[in-house]
Design brief:
Belongs to the oxygen-dependent FAD-linked oxidoreductase family. Keywords: Oxidoreductase, Signal. GO terms for molecular function: FAD binding; oxidoreductase activity. The chain is of the alpha+beta class. Helix content is about 30%, strand content about 25%. The protein contains 19 helices and 25 strands. A seven-stranded antiparallel sheet has the order 20-17-19-18-22-23-21. The chain has a five-stranded antiparallel sheet with strand order 10-11-15-13-14. The structure holds flavin-adenine dinucleotide (FAD) and 2-acetamido-2-deoxy-beta-D-glucopyranose (8 copies). The site of one 2-acetamido-2-deoxy-beta-D-glucopyranose (NAG) has 5 residues, from helix 15. One 2-acetamido-2-deoxy-beta-D-glucopyranose binds next to helix 11.
């Protein structure tokens, strides 16, 4: 659909791209005042520094024609798209039906050039509608998109953004909860076309590791890698997130990347062997334990879109093993009993991680519901896993808690992953936050933690939980090889908080939701679990003291690295190392440095 829509745009719009061309202004910073302060801003359409048509055409030629003016996915449902380059007639019944049907589906949105799956940060100014005379504007979707298919395309995009001081965004699958893959007025480089996958039985590159490995292009998604690994003889697995559609060489390793194998192997970042990247100077580099080893460390959990654009990643792979999954569903009207059940469940978090058990659960979604699906025993028989969970079930029985449960053993972990994890949707709007509870907190303060859960639900937030410990199976000597917060090695129970709020809600409502997330909901969890940490891919970027919350003792080294590899801020993602002076002023639009 994307390309057909783009073709609706006539030459008039493209001419408008050059309307403000001014050769001697190019690359300049733009001075602005906002809320009484002075800022130096990136260059945006309408500023004198914005590149002219000649420059855009030259870029497009270098890109072999892969530059497009962006149009929001919902535009075919509207008569008129009032874009920043002018008005375009966009209504198309068939395409509107298509986007209406696809908007709630992850893979549909992933395939679009610049969509954000969680729409809050697109500003939701053009959702699919049945009323074509409504207003459709670009919101915070990008102005232009490069669909990169070669390393040269990414280099050209980075160089062009750097030379012209444009807001640059790297977009892979668009899963980002924090809005880091969309942005007002930006130029996007889409990496989804980098789909190559290869395997080796004996890694011979740097790092002293000689076992099996996978090498993937920047756009590869977990399910594709897992399917192909499973087809090998004998089948292999790798660390991915619990969600098969998330990319495995974009934001995931740069944030860390936890999943059902994290107890056994650590984060995806812990399994990294090498990255091929393009740094802010436009140079293609190899980063591993020998070459650019500081960069290699930073790319392993030090923050997405911070040090470089990944074009290819190599990871360790592992033998697959028979595995067992258990589900547990509790739905109780009696509030006292419900919280007794939640307290019992939460109290066993340390027991689970001390036995290498991973758990994915949802709390408070659809009512007084605790939906635990699945409890994963990698390499465990049904009898072994049941023995580990038995004390929990005995306690639930003693309390008189009604529940449904099932146990299923699979020939491989892969079969369990495909069989027990529910598919997730796209297109909803919410603010997300989160906090990771440490083992010491569970041991000391389960009651206080459950009180915090009550505060979270009472203040209109939902919760998604993941029980894992990133230090259980990974040898201690490996821990410091990734830049992730060392506190995750003592983690027990990781929560995502979700406050639904419309992307086009009145500004006061948005501010109130953000306040609630930061100062009520996430703050309650932090107070109850002081030994915890925040996970940069699933957290509130405005959490106070984010440097400490996201990276702990690793932060000073990451800040130095950022100054070395991207001193000018060619890349930017909110609350990543070195961005303390940066702000998106004017209601989350212009990216600027505070002077
Ligand atoms: C339904 C769902 C389930 C999830 N489950 C898990 C989970 O189990 N475990 C977990 O750890 N996380 C999970 N996440 C969070 C996930 O880690 C983040 O959303 C992550 O940022 C997605 O990365 P992406 O590259 O696929 O997405 P994108 O939104 O495209 O990119 C995310 C960030 O990475 C940057 N980026 C993307 N590609 C590159 C590149 N090639 N080079 C440099 N920067 C790049 C982007 O600029 C952006 O800042 C989940 C998210 C969702 C929506
Ligand atoms: C880039 O070139 C292609 C192929 O000629 C063209 O279809 C497209 O409209 C151009 N993009 C821009 C922004 O001019
Ligand atoms: C675009 O359309 C809107 C709504 O009809 C109108 O108000 C606006 O003036 C138009 N803009 C341009 C540049 O034609
Ligand atoms: C939308 O259109 C594309 C291209 O024609 C098609 O492949 C896809 O299945 C359609 N999706 C939906 C949800 O209708
Ligand atoms: C973003 O949405 C808010 C309402 O939530 C609106 O006031 C603002 O004008 C929108 N900005 C853009 C650029 O879409
Ligand atoms: C709710 O559950 C509690 C704890 O089991 C019990 O004491 C109480 O009687 C129950 N209330 C009702 C209305 O059933
Ligand atoms: C309780 O918390 C403190 C401080 O975080 C910690 O030192 C202590 O070990 C914890 N107690 C237990 C039993 O884990
Ligand atoms: C336990 O949690 C409560 C919040 O419910 C918090 O006030 C208290 O400080 C926590 N205690 C410890 C030891 O962390
Ligand atoms: C938020 O939670 C606190 C603590 O449970 C509660 O006192 C307060 O009323 C809640 N606020 C709202 C708006 O629900």
């Amino acid at each position: 659909m994307g390309s057909r829509l783009f073709n609706l745009l006539g030459g008039g719009l493209l001419l408008a791209l050059g309307a403000t061309a001014s050769q001697n202004e190019r690359g300049k910073w733009v001075h602005r005042k906002w809320a009484g302060a002075d800022y130096s801003c990136k260059c945006y359409l309408g500023d004198a520094c914005w590149p002219g048509k000649q420059q855009w055409d030259a870029l497009n030629a270098t890109l072999t024609g892969n530059l497009r003016v962006d149009v929001p996915p919902g535009a075919p449902c509207y008569n008129l798209f009032q874009g920043p380059l002018g008005n375009v007639t966009t209504y198309n019944a068939a395409q509107c039906a298509n986007v209406t049907a696809g908007f709630g589906t992850e893979q549909y949105q992933i395939e679009l050039p610049a969509a954000g799956l969680w729409t809050y940060f697109t500003n939701d100014t053009c959702r699919p509608t049945t009323n074509p005379s409504d207003t459709c504007t670009l919101g915070y979707y990008p102005v232009l998109v490069i669909t990169a298919t070669t390393v040269g395309h990414i280099q050209a995009g980075i160089n062009f953004a750097r030379e012209n001081n444009l807001r640059l965004i790297i977009r892979n699958t668009g899963h980002d909860f924090l809005g880091r893959s969309v942005g007002w007025g930006s130029l996007v480089i889409n990496t989804h076309s980098f789909q190559q996958i290869s395997f080796t039985d004996s890694w011979s590159g740097a790092g002293g590791y000689a076992g099996s490995a996978i090498t993937v292009g920047a756009g590869v998604q977990a399910f594709d890698a897992l399917n192909k690994l499973n087809a090998l003889t004998p089948p292999k697995v790798m660390v991915t997130g619990e969600c098969g559609t998330v990319g495995i060489a974009g934001g995931l390793p740069q944030g860390g990347g936890h999943g059902p194998l994290t107890n056994q192997q650590g984060f995806l970042a812990d399994t990294a062997l090498e990255f091929k990247v393009i740094t802010a100077d436009g140079v293609l580099r190899t980063a591993n334990e020998k070459t650019s080893s500081d960069l290699f460390w930073g790319l392993r959990g030090g923050g997405p879109a911070t040090f470089a654009v990944i074009v290819e990643a190599s990871y360790k792979t592992f033998a697959d093993v028979p595995s067992t999954g258990i589900t547990l569903n509790i739905n109780i009207a009696n509030t006292t009993l419900f919280w007794q059940a939640v307290t019992a469940f939460t109290g066993y978090s340390n027991r689970f991680v001390d036995n290498g058990i991973y758990v994915y659960y949802e709390l408070g979604i659809g009512g007084q519901i605790l939906n635990v699906q699945p409890i994963v025993g990698v390499g465990k028989t049904a009898a072994q896993l049941q023995a580990i969970v038995k004390p929990l079930f005995s306690e639930l029985d003693a309390l008189g808690v009604p529940y449904q449960t099932s146990t299923k053993t699979f020939a491989t972990f892969y079969d369990l992953y495909m069989g027990l994890f529910a598919t997730e949707g796209a297109g909803s709007s919410a603010l997300t936050g989160g906090w990771t509870i440490g083992k010491a907190d569970i041991a000391n303060n389960t009651t206080g933690i459950v009180e915090a859960f009550k505060t979270v639900l009472a203040n209109g937030s939902l919760m998604v939980g993941h029980i894992w410990n990133a230090g259980y199976g990974l040898p201690r000597s490996e821990w410091s090889k990734s830049a992730v917060n060392p506190r995750f090695r003592a983690a027990s129970n990781k929560l995502i908080t979700v406050i639904p709020v419309d992307g086009n809600a009145p500004l006061a409502d948005k501010a109130a939701a953000q306040y609630k997330l930061t100062y009520v909901v996430d703050n309650a969890l932090k107070q109850a679990a002081p030994s915890g940490a925040a996970y940069v891919n699933e957290a509130d970027p405005f959490i106070p003291n984010w440097q400490e919350a996201f990276w702990g003792t690793n932060y000073p080294a990451l800040l130095k690295l950022r100054k070395k590899w991207d001193p000018a801020g060619v890349f930017y993602a909110v609350s990543t190392p070195g961005t303390e002076d940066w702000e998106q002023i004017e209601y989350g639009t212009r990216l600027c440095k505070r002077l």
